[in-house]
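REQUEST FORM: STRUCTURE PREDICTION
Request ID: SP-0412
Submitted by: Lab K.M.
Chain count: 1
Length (residues): 449
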Amino acid sequence: MSFSRLLLGLSLVLAISTGGLFAAPPNFLIIFTDDQGYGDVSTYGATDVRTPNIDRIGREGMVFTSMRANCTVCSPSRAALLTGRYPDRVGVPGVIRTQPENSWGYLAPGVPTIADELGKAGYHTGIIGKWHLGLESPNTPNERGFEFFHGFLGDMMDSYTTHLRHGNNYLRKNGEVIEADGHATDLFTAWAVDYLRERSGKKDEPFFLYLAYNAPHFPIEPPADWLAKVKEREPGLDEKRATNVAFVEHLDHGIGQVLAALDEFGLSENTLVAFSADNGGSLPHAQSNLPWRDGKQSHYDGGLRVPFMLRWPARIKAGSKSDYAGLNFDLFPTFLELAGTKATDPEQLDALSLVPLLEGKAMPEGRELYFVRREGGRAYGGKSYEAIVRGEWKLMQNDPYSPLELYQLKNDPQETTNVAEKAPKVFNELSAALARQIQKGGSIPWQKP
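STATUS: Completed
RESULT:
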């Protein structure tokens, strides 16, 4: 047993023997879905898709209405979530892919992940599902702080039933190449339930589980019976939309099984469950980001605003709501603070702890939110494009070649009117602020040496 876990065990004994003088540290579960738009969760107003289990997390906890993902695509958003730093500051401004010539990120070795930090604090750390931060050493999950990995190394699956990518098998159980039968959503759900069952027998050791589903990322492949149910219930839905709705509802069913496992194994009360998505939904695949403009790949809020909920019965009041405008990676310092530990390099963190909100207090004011994406192909040419939000103002591009646009979100939340020429003072101030943010990431390589 490590020294940190010995201390943790002693603190638990003290808590019990003194009648609860110190609360036991919580377990942490992040449920992270892939390309699930704001408008594809019924809590946020969707009427054609039903997500009762995701809704349950919010109903029994706190619903956030103004949170954003750290990027409008997968790898950068995940790199930020797991490090508490903006993605270009950990070497992942763009998507990490199978082919090196089309890969635009390399997770910086040596940067502590949330799994590293919680592991040092005595937590067992596990990841189930999609990794997408590296296909080989030193950037596999077991080398980046996770004691247990059961999932998929790659970016997306060619099919949810073959689990291949470009014909390669990226399914792993720790370092072992594995094969599995069934729909990937069902597999990840079953593996998560197995993990929770195993951890329930070791309640003296808290856990951190990162459950990252591939769904509802395309290819949109719901099981046939789920699609049939949706078509029967919503006969007027467009075929594409019906297929996506069924895909999301199948995913929601899996999340329900995970929540039921927490109940069954006596883990619900002191487990903080966080639910969110890595970016907005893909409009060509009939995903919904309503009421926000545009979708995945876009710096308009349809690409960035995501569902975000926290449930922790021991501490978060059921039915709570917050309109705080933060980012997914704020979970990093939040979890560390609640675990009673500190980041190895706190001055390097860009994220802010959400604990004040859980205590009914205000968050610090004056925060800037920074976004970056680098991409190849004819539309981007390997260049990056950025956005920054400060209060009611947002300055942004959606490709490296277009002029910057400025929106006053308070009066124009749907970003319909570019006011760059009408508010030159704000435009210049935010342009300078954006340049400073870009400079901070300039020293970090985003290609493998």
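NOTES: Confidence is low (pLDDT under 50) at residues 1-22.
Reviewed by: T.R.
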